[in-house]
Amino acid sequence: MDYINAFWVGGLICALTQILLDRTKLMPGRIMVLLVCSGSVLGALKIYPVIQEYAGAGASVPLLGFGNLLWKGVKEAVDKEGFIGIFMGGFKASAVGISAALIFGYLASLVFEPKMKK
Questions:
Q1: Whole-model pTM?
Q2: Which end of the chain is more exposed for a tag (fewer CB within 10 A), N or C?
Q3: Alpha-carbon distance 72 to 50, whole Å?
């Protein structure tokens, strides 16, 4: 049942994002920022952890989950370090995920032949 919950929640998030891309004049970058900010706000309101507990990776992998991760990192750093934690927390919490994305992206560029669009 965990796999089904992850699938339908993650699919719902992606479907709603696709509807925003198709039906509005918002640029993709702005929609991505909206998703990260929404994840942070939902995390601050303690709504997103409940969704993440229910859906697992279906809620933690999309950009909403990244926003929630940034929020948790900032909150923990502010509690521990004070004001400077606002600037440090997001970097500490997301460092592994961002590093992995950069490393795997670089490795993929070595395996495949990247081309510029014409």
A1: 0.76
A2: C
A3: 14
